[in-house]
Each structure stands twice: as structure tokens, then as C-alpha cells.
Amino acid sequence: MFSRLFRGAGRIPAAVEDRRRDAELRAHSRRLMRELAPPLPLGVTTLCALLAEQRGTPIKLLKWDLPADGPFGILLSRKDEDVIVYQAKTTRAHQQHIILHEVGHIVAYDLAGARPELPQWRTCYSDRDERDAEIVASTLMHQAMSMQRQAQRYGLDEPWRPSVHGSLVFENGLT
Predict the structure, then answer these.
(1) In the chain, is it the N or the C terminus that has fewer CB atoms within a 10 Å radius of its CB?
(2) What's the rounded Cα separation, in Å, for the pair 21 and 27?
(3) Cα separation of the two ends of the chain
(4) Residue 86, beta-bridge partner list
(5) Under 8 Å CB-to-CB from 132, ≥6 apart: which residues?
(6) Helices 14-36 & 92-112, crossing angle to 10 degrees?
């Protein structure tokens, strides 16, 4: 039906493309978590280690006192490593979200098969790149809450069984 609505129009409206891309990123993020099958409880450092192992490229986390008027996080991607620099002077929950946002850029770039050649400041990313990173980060956070509820409700030792797959639990803090 979709193709009949837009047949002959020449191109698909941007809003439809955005929704399609968002759905693709969410599905990819859930599939990635099933493949990683992380141990619980899972912290963002463990998530980064598992993702790095799967990709074959280290992901280093660097807590830094970034200027208050600058970005809260920076992704420095090089051929042999990715470095996520995140704000030292904020809450642990905000630090986790910053890291997940930068992981979102990594996941979205891997899915697209393209990365920027030079490090990007938050103000240099396109709106689409920022949206992609937030979609991945929010999907991971949603999975964390969902998995925590299911593990508590059913007392699961192996929450990655197919019946409850696709979520993760973040422990308090970053470790």
C-alpha cells in the first residue's frame, strides 16, 4: 500500500524516511544487544567492552573536565580505536547517557558503513546524526528498564533467553 500511495511521486517524503531510519536503528540496536548477550548487571563500561570486542576496535572511556559551555561528550574515532570523552562534572546518570549517546554514533556509523574522517564536535554533527545517536541511546535505556523489570518479576538468572531477550540492566555507576 505504501508504494501505491507514493508511486510516481518521485521521492519519499523526509518524515517517512526519518521514521523508517528510526525504526531501522531501534531494530538494529535490539539485535545488537541479543548478539552481545551481556552478563548482568551490565554497566556502560561492560557494554563498551563487549561492543569493542565484537567490532574488533577498542572503545576507551575518558572522564574529562570539559568546559561548561561546550559539549558534554566527544567521540574521537580513529582507525585503531574509538575514544569517548565524557563530562566529569555531572551526575552518574548523565554520564551514562552521554556515553550511550556517543555509543549511538558508533552504532549508527557502523550500520551506515561510513564514519567521519575527522573528530566531530557536537555542533558539527548533522541533525540526522544527532537524531540517530539519540535513537540508539534511548533504545538502550528503554531496554535497560525493561530488562530490570522482567528480571525482578520472574527472578531470571538467564534473561537473554529468547522469551525475554533484547534488554540490558545498568548497574549503579559506570563499572
Answers:
(1) N
(2) 10
(3) 48
(4) 63, 73
(5) 21, 25, 104, 105, 108
(6) 110
Residue 168 contacts by C-beta under 8 Å, 6 or more apart in sequence? Answer: 33, 38, 40, 42, 47, 140, 143, 144, 147
Place of cell 566527544: 74
DSSP letter, residue 171: P
Distance of CA 134 to the CA centre of its chain: 7
C-alpha cell at 162: 529468547
pLDDT one digit per residue (tens) for the chain, 175 residues: 344 444 445 567 888 988 999 999 999 998 888 888 776 666 789 899 999 999 999 999 999 999 988 889 999 888 789 999 999 999 998 999 899 999 999 999 888 877 766 655 545 667 888 899 999 998 877 776 676 667 777 776 655 554 433 344 444 444 4
The model carries a pTM of 0.76
Per-residue cell: 164: 525475554
